[in-house]
Amino acid sequence: MSKYPNPILPDFYNDIAFSVVVTSLKKETVNNNPDVVTRVNYKITAEYGNYIETFMSDCDFLISEDQTEFTEFSQLTEEQVKQWCMDDEDLDQMKASLATKISSKIIDQQTKLLTTTDFPWQSS
How many Cα atoms are found within 13 Å in the side-chain-facing hemisphere of 45? Predict the structure, then answer.
C-alpha cells in the first residue's frame, strides 16, 4: 500500500519522457567496506513537447549491520545507480507531480490566463 493517494494523471501522461540524471553520490565506510554509496542525489526531468519540468531528489540507503557484500565503487555503472533511483518508492509521486505541473502550464496557456504583478490596490 502506497503512502500517497492515487494521483490524477493528465491524459498525456504516457507521452511524457521522463529521465533521471545522477548529480552526486555520498560514500562512507560501512561494515569495514570503504566507499559504500549511502546516498544518491539525482534530478528527474519530465518533457512533453516544449514543456520541461524538473525535480531534485535523493535516495538514502539504510544498510543492515550484517550486510558485508557491496559492489566495488569502481565497478558501479551509471545504469545501476540510476536504477536505484528508479526503484525509489517516491518516484511515481514525483513523476505525477511533474506531470501535473506540465498540465497546469498547458491549461494556463490554452485558457490564456493573465498573470500580472500589477495589483488593483497599488497606486500608480
Answer: 11
Which residue, among 99, 80, 86, has the nearest Cα to 20 in the 3D structure? 86
End-to-end CA distance of the chain: 55
Cα 75 to Cα 108: distance, rounded to the nearest angstrom: 47
Taking the whole predicted model, whether its pTM rises above 0.85 is answered as no
Residue 66, all three cell numbers: 550484517
The closest alpha carbon to 55, from 101, 7, 94, belongs to 94
Which has the closest alpha carbon to 105: 44, 46, 57, 56?
46
Query: Tens-digit pLDDT profile for the chain (124 aa)?
Result: 467 778 889 999 999 999 999 999 999 998 888 999 999 999 999 999 999 999 999 999 888 888 888 888 999 999 999 998 888 878 889 999 999 999 999 988 877 766 677 788 887 6
